[in-house]
Amino acid sequence: MADIQNLKGKIQNQVDEIYNDLLEVRRHLHANPELSYEEFKTSEFVCEFLKKEGIPFKHGWVKTGITAEIQGAKPGKRIALRADMDALPIVEQTGLPFASQNTGVMHACGHDVHTTCLLGAAKILKGLKNELSGTIQLIFQPGEERLPGGASLMLKEGIFKNQEPAGVLGQHVYPQLPAGQVGFKPGKYMASADELHITVKGKGGHAALPHNLIDPVLISAHMITALQQVISRNKDTLLPGILSFGYISGEGATNIIPNEVKIKGTFRAMDEDFRKQAHEKMTKIAKGVVEGMGGEVDFKIDIGYPFVHNDEALTEACMNDAREFLGEKNVKHLDMRMTAEDFAYYSQIAPGCFYRLGTAFPDRENPGLHHPEFNVNENSLKTGIGLMTYLTIKQLQQ
Q1: Rounded distance, CA 32 to CA 102, Å?
Q2: Is the pLDDT of residue 2 over 70?
């Protein structure tokens, strides 16, 4: 217990020492967001930070990605830490003095915080390297917000080629928990996500003469309703699944039936076997309904991220370590959620633990992720930096 208290105290003291500098790092990143696969200035900034800290790195993965290594004094296992760097195409409305200077681009998903926390943890871990055994791999990843996902591309380019890590840790901001708290979910945590792009073709014309036409609007309505059977009648009722359509465009008018209707949607699941079966069923149902009503259909599925599986043993160990560092009351169990994350690609190769960092302000409304008014309680940086450092050291020791 004395060793744990000494380690906690050492990390907390160092977090306090570097906090103001890392606060400026976060604000700089927030003010200068860049879209997926365009993170060139962000990448330069991260490289300069690593260079200043004397941490060897390699840049240029998927153009803007960076990996770095911190070698302990003794041999041991390898632990990888991941942060994503890209922002979203959103016009910021926070009114912050360090709000986005890149109009129409915003760090509305907290990737500025993720990058800052990993840089802070790297700085502390570098200072402690003579006390560590093993290797820490730092991953600064582009393109989490856009298919095919920067994680999949960095892995294809070989970031784990020389040695697969014994574990991969990643954290994500979470405005549903107050700053100072974190959340974990062993096992299945986040859903796979596929995009549907459908074009229903018919024969347009005057809406008062429908008997002369093949109405793609009516056909589309039947098709959308029929496709819901994939969820309600083909999915195991004990497994979550979602099929939602958010875009329908026919570009007709009150008295004009268009030639075609374009539809876009998302399909999410927590089981890879059902996911593959659902792709086949959706294609078959769409073709059957549309052709049965006299139309034609182009049904395209863009395969997205797989579901996130948190390795049970690693995640339970990290939860226990988090309780040591933050206290029992500040570590929460999370439910499954149907949002998606390309961290899933790492967890397919090595044991993964993807956990949540509370960022909420007390006694005020906290807009959610991807919202133009999203902001974080910057006290969460202390928790994020300190906990990532502590979890890494404890994993190297185990």
Answers
A1: 6
A2: no
